[in-house]
Amino acid sequence: MVIIDTDILIIEFRSPHDIRYPINNQFLSIIRTMGGAITVYTLMEFLGKISFNVNRSKLTRWRSWLQDAYNLIIIWPEAQGIDADSFIRTLIFEHPFERMCSTPIPFVDALILNLVEQVGEAEAFITWNVKHFVGKTPLAVKTPEEYLASTG
């Protein structure tokens, strides 16, 4: 499973004049066919950023124009058997904070990596911000361009 970072979606929806857009779009065309995944944290970061540029009606229909259109699975944290206080304390504070203490990383990136690393089928984490993640996770971290080159 290929897991996609927020910046890929931002370029697709808000930056058609970005020099990386053609490769980004080519990568997402492959994802539309084979499927991919984003974390719920990626989803919320993305929806928050584009909420400045789309109306409420479109924003609330994200499942159709994002999840369904791009063939994406949303990865949710496993909360079974955890009460709400423990969930927030452990998954939203302690685990990301432990990661931030061991290596400099923004909070949302720490949340995303902690969740992505729990996905056994995770093949690669795709981002234009490789430097933010490489060396901070055992997962393969690639740009869309590197991913396209590796798949032939």
Features:
152 residues; mainly alpha; Rossmann fold; 9 helices
Description:
57% of the residues lie in helices and 11% in strands. The model has no long low-confidence stretch (mean pLDDT 94). Strand 4, helix 8 and strand 5 form a beta-alpha-beta unit. The strands form two sheets. A three-stranded parallel β-sheet has the order 1-4-5. It has a two-stranded parallel sheet with strand order 2-3. It is globular. The protein is mostly helical and 152 residues long. It has a single domain, classed as 5'-nuclease (Rossmann fold). Helix 2 packs across helix 9 and helix 6 packs across helix 7. It contains nine helices and five strands; from the N terminus they run E-H-H-E-H-H-H-E-H-H-E-H-E-H. The longest helix is centred in the middle third of the chain and has 19 residues.
Strand order of the largest sheet: 1-4-5
Q: How many independent structural domains? A: 1
Instruction: Evaluate the radius of gyration.
Output: 16 Å
| CATH topology heading | Rossmann fold
What is the global morphology?
Answer: globular
Overall pLDDT level: 94
Structural class: mainly alpha
Helix content: 55-70%
List the helices and strands in order. EHHEHHHEHHEHEH
Task: Supply the number of helical segments.
Answer: 9
As residue ranges, the low-confidence spans are: none
CATH superfamily: 5'-nuclease
Please identify, by name, the CATH architecture: 3-Layer(aba) Sandwich
